């Protein structure tokens, strides 16, 4: 088992190109792990530099967000909070075909708390 793990680890470390091509949010020390996990699953697909969803990409690119300065991040967070509060994201049209993409109550609360600094009211 240790040998197998060693092999997996070895393969994992010898293929850096895998990381560059994977469609996942890059590791960021600034973004809390729980936020990153939700964004990665529920938002990143449409909002990343390589996204085919041109409109989504133009409005919000998490890769750019990660790389941007604190002040810019604050402004973007405000937009995120607005979109979430209005129930606009993920888009309703998209959820018709992919209902599992909807944010759970807990995920929504977590994202709102992070983006708007708000606690859930109930
Ligand atoms: C199915 C693709 C898709 C998913 C998934 C998605 N978005 Fe979007 N998002 C879009 C599109 C398309 C727009 C542009 C909407 C428009 O301009 O009408 C957008 C716009 C936005 C905007 C900009 C709003 C504005 O008007 O400035 C924010 C913020 C946003 N999304 C946040 C999120 C968050 C947070 C998530 C995850 C909870 C998410 N999105 C998931 C496609 C998506």
UniProtKB/TrEMBL annotation:
Pfam families: Haem_bd (PF14376)
A single GO molecular function term of this UniProt record: electron transfer activity
Record domain Haem-binding: where: 1-119
SUPFAM superfamilies noted in UniProt: Cytochrome c
InterPro entries: Cyt_c-like_dom_sf, Haem-bd
Organism domain of life: Bacteria
Gene3D superfamilies, alphabetized: Cytochrome c-like domain
Protein name in UniProt: Haem-binding domain-containing protein
